[in-house]
Amino acid sequence: MLETTRGRQVRATVAGLGITVGALLAGLLGVISMGSLVSVFGVAESPVVRVLQGNYIQVGFAGFAVAYLVWQGDWDRYVKIRWPTPEDIGWIVGLPVLFAAQGVVLPPILAVIGLPHPQPGTGLEELALETRPLLWPVAFIGMYLFAAPAEELVYRGIIQGRLRAVFDTLGVVALGGLLFGLMHFFVGLMTQGVSVGGSLYWGIDTVLPGLAWGFAYERTENLLVTAVTHAMVWTVTLHEIALHLLPI
Length: 248
Known about the structure:
By secondary structure, this protein is mainly α. It is built from 11 helices and no strands. α1 (5-40) runs parallel beside α8 and α5 (86-112) crosses α10 (223-235). The protein is globular, with a radius of gyration of 18 Å.
C-alpha cells in the first residue's frame, strides 16, 4: 500500500524532531568535552576562550551534521552554499534590521506575561568585544566560520532539507522555526541559572529568527546568508543601539 501524503508528512516531522534532539544531545557532549578540555589546560579564564565559550554547543552540532551527512550520503541536498547574489546581500542587510526590531519590541511583551530574560551569561558582556579589537579575529573565525555555519547546517540545511521533500514552503518554514525554538527551550532548561520561564522566553525569542532564517533559506538556498546573519546576532547588537537611541 502506497504511503499517503499525510503519512509522509508525519514521518518527516518525526524525523525533524529526531534530528533536533540528536543534534542537541551531540551539542551537550560538545559543551561537556570542550569545558573539560579548557579546564585540563587551565585556559578557562583566557579572553580568547571566554569569547568562544558560548559556542561550545556548536562543536557537537558540527560533529552531528558530519555524521548525518556521511550516513545519508546526499550532500547536495543538505549543503547548499554559493557566492552571494544581490538578493542574498539584501537578505544579509535586511535580516539584522528585522532582528533589531524584534530585540526592541518583543522583550517588553514577554515581560508583561511574566517571562524573565534568561541572561545566560556567556562572558561576552564582561569582555566588551566591541572595545577589544584584538579579539575580533577570534570571534570572526570561531563564530562566522565555524559556530554559525555548524548550527545553520543542522537547522536549515539538514532539517529543512528533510522537510522540503513533503511540505510546501509554509510548512517547511513553520516547522523548522518551531523546532529551532524548541531546541533553544531545551538548551535553556540545561543551562545553569536559567529558570523554566527563562527557557520559555528563550524558546519564543528564537522561534521568530528561526522563521526568518527558514524563509530566507527557502528563498535563497544559500547557507551563507543564514550563517552570516546568525553570527551577526552574536556580534552586532543593533537592538541595543536602538534601545539607547529611542526614547522608550
